[in-house]
# Entry
Amino acid sequence: MSAAESSSRARQEAESEAEAEPPQRRWVALVSIPVILASGDERARSMLAHATNVELDLHDPPQPSYLLLHPSIVGLKPVAQQPSVYILATDGSGSLVFRVTNHGSNGPDEDDVMYFCDAHARRAISMPALYPRDSVLLGDKLLCCSTATFQWFVKPLLTSATTRMRNPSADTGVVAHAGRLYWLALAYGVFVCDPFADTAHLRFLALPADCDLGEKPYRINRAYVAQCRRVAPSEGQLRYVEIRGLSYEAYVAPAVAPPPVHPTVWMWTLVDPEATEPWRFEYEAPFAEVWAHESYAAAGLPHGEVPHVALVDPDDHGIVYFFQGSKSKLFGLDVRARRVVSCEECSVRDDLKMKDWNSRPIVDAWEVPPPSPPCSELSSPSPQGSDELAPVAKRVIEILRLMSDTDDDDGGYATI
# Structure
């Protein structure tokens, strides 16, 4: 066989193998409540065999995906109230942080344990206890934990005298994007800083015009805000989505709330945090036109029922995903075309009363890391993390909390 024929044959074989392999998912709709496996589950036994303690159950969106945990992480007990687990943050490098809350614990240090998860190695290790726990006397600080040292440390945080300071009752999440942290107070704005600066400067960005819900956050139902508003990255920029025409009143139950008035979905893009007008309007679509589209009825979705915002497609800001609660469905909508592009059953409800101050929505987009090497090629995790954890992100990852001088029951922390 000639060299040319050999080269041609090798190329054909490589192309055949590439065609046989399924395409790598760009992202998944990751549920923030991990699944705790039973000790007798075959997947749990497989984890022990491979010296791992987490696994990923990934599916194409809008079908939900899950983080699976070995029961040894949470210490399941046959009688006592079981711990609750919630994902606090994810990273495109394959890193996750989740919190285990032990209900009825005797000591404050045992109430919450945070874990750093390396999705490549399929391992999670506990992080050091949060220190200091009480921030009231420390003023405005950033409390950080570096995976290079796996130790907590405090960084100074500057705030402007003209900044409209945080109100913890209005906080609805945190987003890390393009080297900055954005604390979301979706009733009126976002707070942004560069956590990697020697001295971080916290600045306030108001939401687009007519999106501020006013100066009385105690009258606003945080759950309603979280269901109707979302800030999320898509195509390299932060997008703000809002459903208009609904009430946010805290003391009005959904059953007796007034009907929506011409409900519409709107989107803006954060084009420049430094600009006087940082937001650019993208589009709006009346739900009446969405309901009238043939794709809506074909997906089995109910006419006249306003859905909840779930997430934004990271690769296409024109596609927004919504929860349809009465039908337990998650569907993708091409907003400009008013067309439903995908729809799947989703038993996860976004109105669950989870522990206060969770920083991540009940379901959110997670850009999936590249496939990991076989388990035999992976090294064991180390509490120090300098050799094993740093290569995952190719940089030092800081897990940050905003510490402010407030008198709320949470000690002034805004969750990561």
